[in-house]
Design brief:
Blueprint (H helix, E strand, L loop, with lengths): L6 E2 L7 E6 L4 H8 L6 E5 L9 E5 L4 E6 L2 E4 L2 E2 L4 H16 L14 E6 L23 E6 L1 E6 L4 E7 L4 H13 L19 E2 L3 H16 L12 E2 L8 H11 L4 E6 L5 E4 L22 H8 L8 H4 L12
Antiparallel strand pairs: 1-2, 2-11, 3-4, 3-14, 4-10, 5-6, 5-9, 6-7, 8-9, 10-11, 12-13, 14-15
Length: 328
């Protein structure tokens, strides 16, 4: 029996070449593609198919953009300092290549494009912020790959496809991945033993430093300067010998399956397992002042403004002051 041949969907210009393949677990698909540059796994359906119907796996991006220490690079080459502008230009180039035709209705909604992360530190591109502390795992502020060939899995329908942006070599490229995924492979399973090398997890700062930060935050709230703050710190560890990022991801997936999980390999810097919203290594906590007043001469005047009767106690220190004066 002849195997089905991939056929382009009628979208012009551009389009998607799709080849349906046997349904497989997304982690098993990722394991088969993990030897390729910068693979990713967007893992849905492990916990709740009704909320996360689709999974996506890809590798070998045709472009890779990073921003670190204020410097933007595309495929390792300097590209100025405007991270968001560079990202927007690459996204527009992808849209131009795909064309304006409506997407195929029978395929999953994501058919290739940008996959990556934007870190909290990227806020320095938008406003003047203190420099983050240097210690940590040296993740870039932004890392985004542009993928024109992926595997898409529909857990609800029980179907899977290799998808590729249409082009002269697209049929060949989808057949290549189909054959790669069909080849015999050992089962993918989580290992046993400790995750981390000694001494295990290390806190980013001491108990005393954390308590001092809490006390300072409480003081800011009591003074009416802020009404909330997020105090964060890093916990760092080194993977034990023989524990790969995929192995760590499988252990976390088995213990705490989430409807939206991700595993992204950044290349030589290693993988970033993210089976929940990860604690980004943002160095230091920062107070966010929303409509608060500068402490000092204005503080007494603020306290003289009457608070309406019946205001709950928890809101009295957060009562909005009139916007007449200098804010921070």
């Amino acid at each position: 029996m002849m195997s089905p041949q991939p056929a382009p969907h009628p979208t012009s210009p551009g389009g998607i070449v799709a080849l349906e393949i046997p349904l497989s677990d997304p982690v098993a698909v990722y394991a088969r593609l993990a030897h390729l540059p910068r693979p990713f796994l967007l893992d849905g359906g492990a916990a709740d198919v009704t909320r996360a119907r689709y999974s996506y796996v890809g590798a070998d991006p045709h472009a890779w953009v990073e921003c670190a220490h204020g410097i933007v690079t595309v495929d390792g080459q300097p590209a100025g300092a405007d991270a968001l502008g560079t990202l927007a230009a690459l996204l527009q180039a992808g849209r131009d290549r795909l064309g304006n035709a409506p997407p195929p209705a029978d395929l999953p909604p994501f058919r290739g494009g940008a996959v990556g992360f934007l870190g909290y530190e990227l806020g320095g591109q938008l406003e003047a912020l203190p420099a983050p502390r240097a210690e940590g795992v040296a993740l870039p502020d932004m890392a985004v790959g542009f993928y024109d060939r992926i595997v898409a899995i529909d857990h609800a329908a029980g179907r899977a496809w290799v998808l590729c942006l249409a082009g002269p070599d697209a049929p060949e490229r989808v057949r290549e991945w189909r054959d790669l995924l069909a080849a015999p492979a050992a089962p993918v399973a989580a290992g046993e033993g400790p995750w981390l090398a000694a001494p295990g997890w290390r806190a980013g700062w001491s108990r005393e430093s954390h308590e001092a930060a809490v006390a300072r935050t409480v003081d800011y709230i009591a003074a009416g300067d802020i009404y909330q703050a997020n105090i964060t710190q890093r916990f760092l560890g080194t993977l034990a010998a023989g524990v790969a990022p995929l192995d760590l991801y499988l252990r976390l997936r088995a213990r705490a399956a989430a409807p939206f999980s991700a595993l992204l390999d950044l290349g030589p810097k290693g993988g970033t397992p993210a089976p929940w919203c990860p604690c980004r290594p943002n160095a230091s906590w920062r107070l966010t002042r929303r409509g608060g007043w500068r402490r000092g001469p204005l503080r007494a005047r603020d306290r003289a403004i009457p608070i309406p009767p019946g205001t709950p106690r928890w809101r009295r220190n957060c009562w909005p002051r009139p916007r007449t004066g200098r804010k921070t």
